[in-house]
Amino acid sequence: MLVCDCNEVSYEMVKEAVKKHGDNLEAIMQETEAGTTCGCCLEEGCDKVDLALPLAIAKALQELE
Length: 65
Ligand code: FES
Prior knowledge:
Elements: E1 2-4, E2 9-10, H1 11-21, H2 25-32, H3 53-64
Antiparallel strand pairs: 1-2
Helix pairs in contact: 1-2, 1-3
């Protein structure tokens, strides 16, 4: 599942970052580079990706509970 098109970040990569950083968006962006180019994937409605970054973080947090 693609979370960031510009930087080719997958959901699995985001999930790994969430394991380390919890819901810390900036730390996750820094580690994965998701959301650091065009910024589209920071918006829930971004149509360039399967699952926008905020939604991917929420999903990972839920799965890791
Ligand atoms: S799609 Fe993530 S920064 Fe462009």
